[in-house]
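User: We ran a pulldown and think these components assemble together. Before we commit to crystallization trials, I'd like a predicted model of the whole complex to look at. Sequences follow.
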Amino acid sequence: GAVVSQHPSWVICKSGTSVKIECRSLDFQATTMFWYRQFPKKSLMLMATSNEGSKATYEQGVEKDKFLINHASLTLSTLTVTSAHPEDSSFYICSARTWTSGRNEQFFGPGTRLTVL
Amino acid sequence: RKEVEQDPGPFNVPEGATVAFNCTYSNSASQSFFWYRQDCRKEPKLLMSVYSSGNEDGRFTAQLNRASQYISLLIRDSKLSDSATYLCVVNWGQNFVFGPGTRLSVLP
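Assistant: Here's a predicted model for the assembly, 225 residues in total across the polymer chains.
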């Protein structure tokens, strides 16, 4: 399958700081990437859909001014958690959509574990 | 009604057992269907796509019933390493909707 990387894989930061997470498609171009959040023992929750060259589409309840998404190229999308607070501590996972054999498929990055102190 | 529903489990089965998961979806315009596997504290990984005619990959068999809007996954001769959460995913357009997942524990 296609390879998606995320950086960093884990980060610990102080409350009030901003954290930037990168998602890269390594061997394909992704016009669409997705950002998810997952709390312990909970389901994946879609935060936003990121389209290259345009504004991200956020899911209901996700603050676009707090979770800034930039998808400036076909292989890179970034999520910035601004003024992070302890309740933002979570597992953030990106994925990229590909078109393979006549169907959409989605491949995930390894995730970024964020801990806000 | 949720867009994609799954029995959350957990399913606790002995090694070597056969176990089946079902998933129902509400959007009749859904185009593609997938099963993902997620291990604890890891990202979901594509297990298999589900084709209209049904498909098999080793011990895993996936079936699609468009009329009844459900997808199934059958695991034969289950291994300890099959313990994970199995996520049903339904796609239409650029939307991928995940079910809540079914937890499987294979016991020695």
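Residues 4 and 25 of chain B are 4 Å apart (CA to CA). That may be worth checking against your pulldown data before setting up trials.

User: Thanks, that helps.
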